[in-house]
Write a structure and sequence with these properties.
This protein has 17 helices and 16 strands. It is of the alpha/beta class. A hairpin with an 8-residue loop joins strand 6 and strand 7.
């Protein structure tokens, strides 16, 4: 009897580890002739290209990136145009402890200076993707943050009429303290599935100083997904005490994202022979008929209006970025408005929608994320200003010693939950010394302003500026400041769509069950315990997809969570009670 039990146990364990958990291992046939087609040239797609070459041993010339725009980078774009005003979709804080996959990527990318020296000296590097940089992009970022430290405690949050709010006091009620403890410790994701944060926390919670800082830092609104809120608490619980000053949490790149991160990656991939295709709108795929396996046979796309098809052979792979938070973005200026596009005009969502129709059991539900623009829209702007008055006023207002040290000055009691993000200057390479770049965003996009009685998407750049100056108490100087400034802003209907309330299964797995040759990447795939709206999430999805499809024998860095650690949990409970 005992012998029989042992045999059954061994058989069960063999079946479990063969079929049971984690990303499925497809029937890959990787050869030197394998072609990798990557849909989307944002950070996820670029990371997938690097991992395919570096770790999957795919020749660079066999990697093809199909990008809809005329530039790479996706949401991490940045247009340097001091004459007409710089353009940016925002800056992203990065994190030393949590961005494990991102650092893994950037450690292998030579800095632009390193690459320029290689080109200048005419070096021919054998197997360049294996080249160890003299100074990597990761090295540059780490060096920069040794000397550029945030200290936002004084200027972190402000009430109406320039009333400074005490960021050291979290002002959470006892009821909501208990709710936070339950959410962190006891509630499972089955319990939180499909719920909003406002379904769980009381209305008073959204007036607490903790919420003001947390939402301004990460971009949450009360109607956003409770599961994602829970994951953020789990991932940042060890550093909740840094929520106000941001001395540990707030890392920046030396310049804006495109120049510091995207451009070095693109140049290095070009040096490695990667095929970049622009103006490609991929709108559909064909799957090979099968009851058990899911194999992509064809990709259909339009390139600059011309119909084209990619036919995948045995041994080829498709890495597909699904969904888009910058879909249907429109640009406005100081004197013009920007259209709020609500008809999915640019086609960024259609590929996922078509795939979900053909494979509804494994492709998730795009409609869970793109069907409520009223709750996912933001306006994001960049102000290029030579106004010494504005510069000096903000320095005095925030009591900063260096412009950029403030990071976020948030007005959470304003109707738009308006935020001013001040990066270290210069923010753009070659930015004139007498010019300051400020970034702004409206966390709430569906209400009228306190001063400008319009919703953010209805405003001109000057009206967006006026609302901000009103909260600083200097709206009387609007014409003077506008005269010395350029404003460019984006209406972004889907910018926080990834945080719409979701149920288990709404996000597909990176490698769907049954897939033999395709993976899904980006911010709308499911990565257990990880949290979206961070560049590491997109990078991690690319690593998971490439490593699984190409059978890479290398471990993926684990997700950084510390809520199981008694010390950090106790520390968090102490701060929650403040």
């Amino acid at each position: 009897m005992k012998k029989k039990f042992v045999c059954i146990l061994v058989l069960f364990l063999a079946l479990f580890f063969t079929f049971g958990c984690g990303e499925q291992k497809p029937k890959s046939t990787v050869t030197q002739d394998s072609q990798v087609y990557i849909v989307g040239g944002g950070i996820a797609g670029l990371a997938a290209a690097v991992f395919a070459i570096r770790d999957g041993n795919i020749p660079g010339k066999n990697v093809h990136i199909l990008e809809q725009m005329n530039f790479m980078g996706g949401a991490m774009d940045g247009i340097a145009d001091p004459a007409n005003g710089y353009k940016s979709r925002g800056a992203r804080l990065i994190n030393q402890k949590r961005y494990t996959c991102y650092w893994d990527l950037l450690a292998s990318i030579p800095s632009l200076k390193d690459q320029e020296e290689i080109m200048k000296e005419g070096q021919k590097i054998e197997n360049p993707i294996k080249y160890v940089p003299k100074k990597s992009v990761k090295d540059e970022i780490f060096e920069f943050n040794k000397t550029h430290k945030l200290n936002a405690s004084y200027s972190r949050i402000w009430g109406l009429n320039q009333k400074r709010l005490d960021s050291s006091q979290w002002t959470i009620s006892w009821k909501d303290r208990w709710n936070l403890v339950k959410l962190i410790v006891w509630e499972s994701e089955k319990d939180t599935s499909g719920k909003r944060i406002s379904d769980y926390m009381s209305p008073d919670f959204f007036k607490s100083h903790f919420w003001y800082m947390f939402s301004a830092m990460f971009g949450f609104d009360p109607w956003h997904d409770l599961t994602e809120f829970k994951r953020y608490l789990h991932r940042f619980i060890d550093d909740l005490d840094d929520l106000a000053p941001l001395t540990r949490e707030g890392w920046n790149s030396p310049y804006e994202n495109y120049y510091s991160v995207i451009l070095p990656i693109v140049k290095w991939l070009q040096y490695n022979g990667v095929d970049f295709q622009y103006g490609c709108k991929v709108y559909d795929v064909d799957f090979k008929p099968s009851q058990t396996e899911k194999t992509v046979e064809k990709l259909y796309y339009k390139q600059n209006g011309e119909d084209k098809t990619v036919t995948l052979k045995n041994g080829d792979f498709a890495i597909i970025n699904i969904g888009s938070k910058v879909a249907d973005s429109s640009l406005g200026t100081m004197d013009t408005t920007a259209e709020l596009i609500t008809d999915k005009r640019d086609g960024s969502w259609i590929l996922w929608e078509n795939m979900a129709k053909k494979q509804p059991d494994v492709m998730g539900h795009p409609e869970a994320f793109n069907s409520n623009i009223n709750e996912s829209k933001w306006v994001v702007w960049a102000l290029t200003s030579k106004s010494k008055f504005l510069h000096d006023y903000i320095m005095n207002f925030s009591k900063a010693t260096v412009m950029g040290q403030q990071h976020i000055i948030s007005f959470p009691e304003s109707n738009w939950h308006y935020g001013l993000h001040i990066p270290f200057q210069p923010f753009y390479k070659g930015q004139p010394d007498d010019t300051t770049v400020y970034l702004g965003y409206t966390l709430i996009g569906n209400t009228k302003g306190n001063y400008i009685k319009k919703e953010p998407h209805e405003c001109t750049g000057k009206e967006l500026l006026a609302e901000m100056l009103y909260h600083f108490g200097i709206v009387d100087h609007l014409d003077e400041i506008a005269k010395e400034s350029k404003m460019n802003f984006y209406n972004e209907p889907y910018v926080v769509s990834h945080w719409q309330p979701r149920k288990i299964g709404d996000r597909p797995n990176v490698v769907p069950k049954g897939s033999t040759n395709f993976a899904l990447i980006g911010e709308y795939v499911e990565i257990p315990e990880s949290s979206t709206f961070m560049v590491d999430y997109s990078t991690q999805s690319a690593m998971m997809g490439i490593y699984t499809l190409l059978n890479v024998d290398k471990k993926i860095p684990p997700v950084h969570v510390t809520h199981y650690n008694p010390y950090y949990l106790t520390k968090a409970l102490y701060y929650i009670s403040k």
